From TrEMBL:
Alphabetical list of PROSITE patterns matching this protein: OMPR_PHOB
GO cellular component terms attached to this protein's record: cytosol; protein-DNA complex
Gene3D superfamilies xref list: Winged helix-like DNA-binding domain superfamily/Winged helix DNA-binding domain
Pfam family, one: Trans_reg_C
Keywords annotated in UniProt: DNA-binding, Phosphoprotein, Transcription, Transcription regulation, Two-component regulatory system
Annotated protein name in UniProt: Transcriptional regulatory protein, C-terminal domain protein
GO-annotated biological processes: regulation of DNA-templated transcription
OmpR/PhoB-type domain span: 15-112
Length: 114
């Protein structure tokens, strides 16, 4: 006989997601909820937002973001990251508690204000 599968834990039911005031980024079902509304965005933008938001206040260089989101084989300009960040900022405006910020000369971070 086959034993029944264990019930999924709460984290398994929810999948991979990060949640902040007025922002939920769910990588499992590729959805973004901002201020209670669904926000459409291409997969790379969503992956970039999730990656930054999953490591609050950590600074990432353009190269690190390219490697993680686009892969080591990506051949192109690091400005691709800048374009995606610009589009993200247009879709999810800065919030009182968090923002995607530029760290001049280094890269970007998802800044959580205390």
């Amino acid at each position: 006989q086959v034993a029944p599968a264990p019930a999924p834990s709460a984290s398994e039911q929810q999948g991979e997601y990060v949640e902040y005031p007025d922002l939920i980024v769910n990588l499992t079902n590729y959805s973004v909820i901002y201020r209670g509304h669904s926000v459409e965005m291409p997969p790379k933008e969503l992956e970039l937002l999730y990656f930054l938001a999953a490591s609050p206040n950590q600074v990432f260089t353009r190269e690190q973001l390219l490697d993680h989101i686009w892969g080591y084989e990506y051949i192109g300009d690091t400005r691709t990251v800048d374009v995606h960040i610009k589009r993200l900022r247009e879709k999810i405006k800065d919030h009182a508690n968090w923002a995607i910020t530029t760290v001049w000369g280094i890269g970007y971070k998802f800044e959580v204000k205390r």
